[in-house]
From TrEMBL:
Source organism phylogeny: Bacteria, Bacillati, Bacillota, Clostridia, Lachnospirales
The DUF4832 domain, residue ranges: 205-399
Residue span, DUF4874 domain: 28-186
Domain of life: Bacteria
Natural source organism: Faecalicatena fissicatena
Protein name: DUF4832 domain-containing protein
C-alpha cells in the first residue's frame, strides 16, 4: 500500500474595518441617562397605564418610593404589595432600577422623617426583605431613607452611630446582591474602616452625587480640609475627595445629578464652561448615570457647547459626548490571527473601554463562527465587568478553523441582555471578518 499525507489547509482571514462609530448606545444596560418615577407606596399602580410613560431609549429608571404616609407606623401589607408590584413592573420592562425610598420630596427632611429612629430601622428591614425575596432589577439602592429628598442631609439621623445602625440593618438583606450608595465620601468612610478600604473589602457600598458641578465642593459633597488634618471620617479637600471617589467608582456605579451654580459669574464656575474640564472630572468620577431632566440649566448649556474633541467627535456637542461616554463604551481596536497548527486558528483581540466607567454586572464575551451550514459559539471571557473605563484589554483564544463569518458578542450573564460594541456597523453582534481556505 502506498501511503500519502493529506495536504494541510492554508487559511486566510479577511478582516473588517475596525473603527469606532458615533452612535450613542442607548440600549446598553446599566448606563446613561435616567428619569425619576415617583410612587406613594400607599397607592396601587396601573401597569397598563404606567408602561406608556417609559422611554425605550432609557435602560435606567430612578424609582422613588414615597414613604411619607408611614412616618408614624410600619408599612402595611398593601404598601408592601405595592412596592413588590412596582419593582416587578420595572424588571418585566427590562429597566435597571436606581431605588430611592424617601420620607421627603420637598426639601423638608427634618419635618418629614419619623420621630422614632426605630421606625426608620423597621422600614429598612421591610424594604430589605422585599428586595431579598422578590424578583427585581435594582442596580443601586440610594440613601438610607432619611434627609431632604432622601439625600442624607438635613436629618436628625446622620450621626456616626445612626448611619452605622442603618447600614447594619440594610446590608443583612442586600450584601452581595444589591449595591447600596451613600451621599458623601465622608459617610462612606464612616461605614468602611481605612484598613478595609486598603484591602478593597467593600464591594457592596458606593456613592451617589446629586451636586455634581453645583459648586467647588459639589454642594457640600467635599470639604475644605486636607486629609491629614481632617482624619479618615471627615470631609476632605476637593482634590483628595475626587481621587478617593476615583478608586471607589472603579468597581461601583457612580452617578447622580449635574447642577448649575446659582451665580454663573462666580470664578469657580469656570469648570462647567470648560468642556475639557467637565469631561476630565466625569472620567475621574467614573460616572455611569445622570439625571436626564435636572438640572436643565447646565444640560442646555452642554447642548450648545462644543465637546472640544477631534476625530469622530469633532463638531459634536458636550451633551452628545457625555451621552455616549456615560458608563462603559467597548470598542474593538485590533484583531490578530495566527495559524499555530493544523486547522487551528489563534485570535488575539484588543478591546478598549472608551467610556467613563465599567460594566458592573457579570457579562460574557463570545466568539461566533457561522456559515450557511453551521454555527459555533465559544465563550472567550467572563471578565468583561473588569474592563475599566479608559483602559485597553487583550483576549486570546484558539479555535478550530471553520469557513465563514466570525463575530464577537457580549451578553449580560443574569438575563442574556445584549451589550453592543461601539464600532461602526455593530448591532447585536460585531462582524470582525471572514475565514476561508486557500
Amino acid at each position: 500500500m502506498i501511503g500519502f499525507w493529506k495536504k494541510k489547509k492554508d487559511w486566510e482571514f479577511s478582516q473588517e474595518v475596525l473603527e469606532e462609530g458615533e452612535e450613542i448606545l442607548y440600549e446598553n444596560p446599566e448606563r446613561g441617562w435616567y428619569e425619576i418615577y415617583t410612587f406613594p407606596v400607599e397607592e396601587k399602580i396601573d401597569p397598563q397605564e404606567l408602561k406608556w410613560s417609559l422611554h425605550e431609549q432609557e435602560t435606567l429608571a430612578l424609582v422613588l418610593l414615597d414613604l411619607q404616609k408611614f412616618r408614624e407606623k410600619p408599612l402595611d401589607e398593601q404598601a408592601i404589595y405595592n412596592i413588590k408590584t412596582i419593582l416587578y413592573f420595572f424588571a418585566s420592562h427590562k429597566k435597571d432600577v436606581i431605588l430611592r425610598p424617601v420620607y421627603d420630596r420637598e426639601g423638608k427632611g427634618l419635618e418629614a422623617e419619623p420621630e422614632s429612629f426605630e421606625l426608620v430601622l423597621t422600614h429598612l428591614i421591610q424594604i430589605g426583605e422585599v428586595l431579598e425575596k422578590e424578583k427585581h432589577s435594582v442596580l443601586v439602592f440610594q440613601g438610607f431613607l432619611v434627609g431632604s429628598w432622601g439625600e442624607m442631609h438635613t436629618s436628625a439621623y446622620l450621626t456616626e452611630e445612626h448611619i452605622r445602625q442603618m447600614w447594619d440593618m440594610l446590608k443583612i438583606h442586600t450584601t452581595d446582591k444589591i449595591r447600596v450608595a451613600v451621599r458623601t465620601p465622608a459617610q462612606w468612610r464612616t461605614l468602611i474602616p481605612e484598613e478595609k478600604f486598603q484591602k478593597r473589602e467593600w464591594k457592596a457600598l458606593g456613592l451617589f452625587d446629586d451636586g455634581i458641578f453645583g459648586s467647588t465642593t459639589h454642594l457640600g459633597t467635599f470639604g475644605t480640609m486636607m486629609r491629614e488634618a481632617a482624619g479618615w471620617e471627615k470631609p476632605w479637600s476637593r482634590k483628595e475627595e475626587l481621587e478617593f471617589i476615583e478608586q471607589i467608582s472603579r468597581d461601583f456605579p457612580c452617578g447622580g445629578e449635574a447642577i448649575a451654580e446659582a451665580d454663573p459669574d462666580r470664578a469657580d464656575q469656570i469648570l462647567t464652561k470648560d468642556a475639557k474640564a467637565v469631561i476630565s472630572e466625569m472620567q475621574k468620577m467614573h460616572l455611569a448615570y445622570l439625571n436626564l431632566v435636572h438640572d436643565t440649566r447646565i444640560l442646555d448649556q452642554w447642548k450648545a457647547q462644543s465637546c472640544g474633541k477631534d476625530g469622530i467627535w469633532s463638531g459634536k456637542t458636550l451633551y452628545e459626548y457625555v451621552s455616549a461616554h456615560l458608563g462603559y463604551r467597548f470598542v474593538l481596536k485590533k484583531v490578530e490571527m495566527q495559524v499555530p497548527k493544523r486547522d487551528k486558528i489563534k485570535f488575539v483581540f484588543e478591546v478598549e473601554n472608551c467610556g467613563f466607567a465599567s460594566l458592573f454586572q457579570e457579562a460574557q464575551l463570545f466568539l461566533i463562527q457561522e456559515n450557511e451550514k453551521e454555527r459555533k459559539e465559544m465563550l472567550l471571557s467572563e471578565e468583561v465587568q473588569k474592563w475599566h473605563g479608559g483602559s485597553t484589554y487583550k483576549v486570546e483564544t484558539e479555535t478550530g478553523a471553520m469557513k465563514g463569518n466570525i463575530f464577537l458578542q457580549i451578553r449580560r450573564k443574569k438575563d442574556g441582555k445584549i451589550i453592543s460594541f461601539a464600532n461602526k456597523n455593530s448591532a447585536d453582534r460585531l462582524l470582525i471578518g471572514s475565514l476561508h481556505s486557500v
